[in-house]
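In the laboratory, one determines a bound structure by crystallizing the protein with its ligand and collecting diffraction data. In a computational setting the workflow is compressed into a single prediction: the sequence and the ligand go in, and a structural description comes out. We illustrate the idea with zinc ion.
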Amino acid sequence: MQLIDADELFKEFENHAWEYNTGREEAEDILLRFPTVDAEPVKHGKWIDTREKLYPRCSVCGEMSIDATHTNKGMYCSSCGAKMDEKE
Ligand SMILES: [Zn+2]
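The predicted complex, in C-alpha coordinate form:
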Protein backbone atom coordinates (compact mmCIF):
# COMPACT_ATOMS: atom_id res chain seq x y z
CA MET A 1 0.00 0.00 0.00
CA GLN A 2 1.22 3.45 -0.85
CA LEU A 3 -0.21 6.22 1.30
CA ILE A 4 -0.49 9.63 -0.30
CA ASP A 5 -1.81 12.94 1.01
CA ALA A 6 -4.91 13.53 -1.15
CA ASP A 7 -5.16 17.11 0.13
CA GLU A 8 -1.74 17.81 -1.37
CA LEU A 9 -2.84 16.20 -4.63
CA PHE A 10 -5.92 18.43 -4.80
CA LYS A 11 -3.63 21.44 -4.23
CA GLU A 12 -1.45 20.20 -7.07
CA PHE A 13 -4.55 20.02 -9.30
CA GLU A 14 -5.46 23.59 -8.30
CA ASN A 15 -1.96 25.03 -8.74
CA HIS A 16 -1.43 23.39 -12.12
CA ALA A 17 -5.01 23.28 -13.35
CA TRP A 18 -3.98 24.05 -16.93
CA GLU A 19 -1.87 20.88 -17.00
CA TYR A 20 -4.63 18.64 -15.66
CA ASN A 21 -7.62 19.69 -17.74
CA THR A 22 -8.30 16.30 -19.26
CA GLY A 23 -9.82 13.89 -16.81
CA ARG A 24 -9.21 16.06 -13.77
CA GLU A 25 -12.79 15.99 -12.47
CA GLU A 26 -12.98 12.25 -12.99
CA ALA A 27 -9.71 11.79 -11.12
CA GLU A 28 -11.01 13.92 -8.23
CA ASP A 29 -14.24 11.93 -8.12
CA ILE A 30 -12.30 8.67 -7.92
CA LEU A 31 -10.02 9.99 -5.18
CA LEU A 32 -12.97 11.21 -3.10
CA ARG A 33 -14.59 7.77 -3.26
CA PHE A 34 -11.51 5.95 -1.97
CA PRO A 35 -11.32 4.97 1.69
CA THR A 36 -8.99 6.83 3.98
CA VAL A 37 -6.76 5.25 6.61
CA ASP A 38 -5.69 6.46 10.02
CA ALA A 39 -1.99 7.10 9.88
CA GLU A 40 0.31 9.33 11.83
CA PRO A 41 3.29 10.97 10.17
CA VAL A 42 6.53 9.25 11.10
CA LYS A 43 8.54 11.18 13.68
CA HIS A 44 12.24 11.30 12.95
CA GLY A 45 14.80 11.72 15.67
CA LYS A 46 18.27 10.76 16.77
CA TRP A 47 19.89 9.45 19.89
CA ILE A 48 21.69 12.06 21.93
CA ASP A 49 24.51 10.95 24.17
CA THR A 50 23.85 11.92 27.75
CA ARG A 51 26.40 13.26 30.18
CA GLU A 52 25.82 10.23 32.36
CA LYS A 53 26.85 8.05 29.39
CA LEU A 54 24.57 5.29 30.58
CA TYR A 55 21.64 5.54 28.17
CA PRO A 56 21.09 7.77 25.16
CA ARG A 57 18.29 10.32 25.12
CA CYS A 58 15.67 10.66 22.37
CA SER A 59 15.85 13.99 20.50
CA VAL A 60 12.06 14.02 20.01
CA CYS A 61 10.60 13.26 23.44
CA GLY A 62 13.71 13.67 25.57
CA GLU A 63 13.24 10.34 27.29
CA MET A 64 16.25 8.24 28.10
CA SER A 65 16.01 4.87 26.47
CA ILE A 66 16.81 2.04 28.81
CA ASP A 67 16.38 -0.34 25.88
CA ALA A 68 19.15 1.33 23.91
CA THR A 69 22.74 1.63 24.92
CA HIS A 70 25.47 3.67 23.33
CA THR A 71 26.87 0.61 21.64
CA ASN A 72 23.52 -0.90 20.62
CA LYS A 73 21.13 1.91 19.82
CA GLY A 74 17.65 0.93 18.76
CA MET A 75 16.08 2.00 15.49
CA TYR A 76 12.97 3.35 17.25
CA CYS A 77 12.43 5.23 20.51
CA SER A 78 10.55 2.97 22.91
CA SER A 79 8.82 6.01 24.48
CA CYS A 80 7.49 7.98 21.50
CA GLY A 81 8.12 5.65 18.56
CA ALA A 82 10.35 8.10 16.68
CA LYS A 83 12.45 6.52 13.98
CA MET A 84 16.07 7.24 14.76
CA ASP A 85 17.30 8.07 11.28
CA GLU A 86 17.78 11.82 11.59
CA LYS A 87 21.21 12.96 10.48
CA GLU A 88 23.53 14.91 12.75
ZN1 LIG B 1 11.25 9.47 21.96
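DSSP finds two helices and two strands in the chain. Keep in mind that any predicted model is a hypothesis to be tested, not a measurement.
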